[in-house]
Amino acid sequence: MQYVKELWQTKKKLFLALTFSLLGIVLAGLLLYALYFTRLFVLKEIKVYGNVKVSKEDILRMLDLKGGEILYRLDLAQLRERLKKHHLIEDVMLRRQLPSTLEVQVKERSPLAILVKNNKGYLIDRKGVILSEANPNDILYYPYVIMEDEKNKDIFFNFLAWLKQNKKYLPVYENLQKILLTKDKIVLNTKSHITIYLPLTTANELFTLYSYLDRIMTYIYDNHLEDRVELIRLDYPFGRALVKYRSI
Questions:
Q1: Do 132 and 194 sit in the same domain of this protein?
Q2: φ, ψ at 53 (rounded to 5°)
Q3: Residue at 36 is within a domain
Q4: How many structural domains does the chain have?
Q5: Residue 134, Ramachandran bin (φ over 0: left; ψ between -120 and 50: alpha; else beta)
Q6: Which residues constitute the domain of residue 60?
Q7: pLDDT truncated to tens, each residue of the chain (248 aa)?
Q8: Tell me, what CATH number does 223's domain have?
């Protein structure tokens, strides 16, 4: 009798397991059918966020979606690469919003400096990508950049981007008028006509050197010497600097 009871319970468990398995397969099949073979998840709307300089019309044109596509069939990676071909777009995030909306979050490139090239000025971003020709008013907000040697331009632009973000250090980025990249140094010229030499080294060492420069500049401003200082050189053995004053 006990054996018959145990056999019946085993068969019951197997029946329930088989029933739930079949039910799972049916539900999965219905879900796949709903996703790919019905009009339930048809693309009806595209929402665009974060764009200022790039129009929504341009973004829609580059996506090349006519409407009516199945949302889950869209290749988001491919669409992202299409949009990143625009010279003003740095990055894009795409997301499916059920049941019928595609969301596009755009990160546009922002100007960092004015690159002087072939006697013309061009606004560039933190990667050195040219955004547009500079206009006369841009000099009020961005320093001129001249590159005599482009071998270490990645370190150079990384340093400039860091400098623009870290406004606690003197001289602040807005006080720089011209920045020169040579083969072995970076030369900064401030709007108060102070020339500053930094050695071209790693980005981390440049950050440290600028913190040293901040201490020197703080001393100069605290003692009202900014009109007397002509030159500051930090391209000496690490930890040393030279301050040259103008002749009176």
A1: yes
A2: -85, -30
A3: no
A4: 2
A5: beta
A6: 45-108
A7: 555 555 556 655 665 556 656 656 655 555 566 555 656 778 999 999 999 999 999 999 999 998 778 888 899 999 999 999 999 999 999 999 988 899 999 999 999 999 999 889 999 999 999 999 999 999 999 999 999 999 999 999 999 999 999 989 999 999 999 999 999 999 999 999 999 999 999 999 999 999 999 999 999 999 999 899 999 999 988 778 999 999 86
A8: 3.40.50.11690
Does one domain contain both 101 and 167?
Answer: no
> Residue 214 is encoded by which pair of tokens?
């901040």
77 falls within a domain = yes
> pTM (2 decimals)?
0.76
Residues 100 and 118 in one domain: no
- 117 & 184 share domain: yes
CA distance 211 to 155: 17
| Beta-bridge mates of residue 233 | 197, 242
Peptide bond preceding 136 in cis form (omega within 30 of 0): no
CA distance 248 to 233: 20
Residue 34 domain flag: no
Residue that has been written with the tokens 């996506």 in this structure: 63
